[in-house]
Write a structure and sequence with these properties.
Shape: elongated
Number of helices: 10
Distance between the termini: 79 Å
Structural class: alpha+beta
Strand order of the largest sheet: 1-2-8-3-6-9
């Protein structure tokens, strides 16, 4: 076991999967963390309801005690390294990020596999290589990056806010866990991702009611409420007024004479 920064990594085994036939990942729940690093082809994985399409050079860290499975066949040659390991608090190391693109470090995994299979080799070697790899490639503690991430999340959510948008959609787009992004958003705005989506839809609705001549029905449709009554109930629930009451309460403007 290698310890660092009040954390630890315990290597638990690895291998290289390769096939030229159509293949889909079985449904599995592991007791360890698992890295999947794609060497060639495309791997289709789903974890916690979020679907991932992993291409050559991409890497995902799957969490323990959470089911993951394939959702689509991989065709042609498919090859990836898999690494099982235990960690005390991996999320603090990755800052909540589980998907990494363009890692392109096949040699590290090849070295790890070599030492894990080599006779009379010290068991510390693959553990050391894994620990160094995680620290060098997935650790992200930059406050500046976190601030930029929060701004990017807010702007993306503002643009895409709709009744169908879910917190998992935001997490998938930014390749972080829902819990981690909710913590960042709550720290900055005092609300979680679900609340942020709701508030941004309400703000869009208010703006359209006050700044356009669109009918309430047209506004509901533009906000992607498939059912007009759902828009009425949603707006009344979150503002205490119907859309028409809200619009009418601001319909009188005062103009000062020069």
């Amino acid at each position: 076991m290698l310890s660092f920064d009040n954390n630890y990594i315990i290597f638990n085994g690895m291998g290289l999967f390769s096939t030229n036939s159509n293949w889909i990942h079985p449904s599995i729940t592991e007791v360890t963390y698992e890295i999947i690093y794609v060497v060639s082809g495309t791997v289709y994985l789903k974890e916690n309801g979020v679907s991932y399409e992993l291409k050559t050079g991409d890497m995902i860290i799957l969490k323990p005690d959470v089911n993951h499975k394939g959702y689509k066949d991989s065709t042609g040659k498919t090859s990836f390294y898999w690494v099982h390991f235990f960690a005390k608090d991996l999320e603090s190391l990755t800052n909540g990020k589980w998907l990494f693109s363009g890692v392109n470090q096949d040699y590290i995994f090849k070295e790890m596999l070599h030492f894990s299979r080599k006779e009379n080799s010290s068991p510390v070697m693959p553990e050391l290589l894994l620990t160094q790899f995680l620290i060098n490639n997935v650790q992200d503690t930059s406050d500046e990056k976190s601030r930029k991430l929060v701004k990017d999340i807010f702007e993306w959510t503002r643009i895409n806010a709709s009744p169908s948008l879910k917190a998992t959609d935001i997490a998938k787009n930014f390749c972080y866990s829902v819990d981690h992004l909710s913590r960042l958003i709550k720290k900055e705005y005092g609300k979680n991702l679900k609340q942020l989506i709701t508030d941004l839809i309400v703000e869009k609705a208010k703006s359209l009611l006050l700044n356009t001549n669109w009918s309430v029905k047209e506004i509901g449709a533009s906000l992607e409420f498939g059912d007009f009554n759902k828009f009425l109930k949603f707006f009344k629930y979150h503002t205490g007024k119907t859309p028409s009451e809200y619009r009418n309460s601001y319909s009188i403007t005062h103009m000062n004479k020069k």
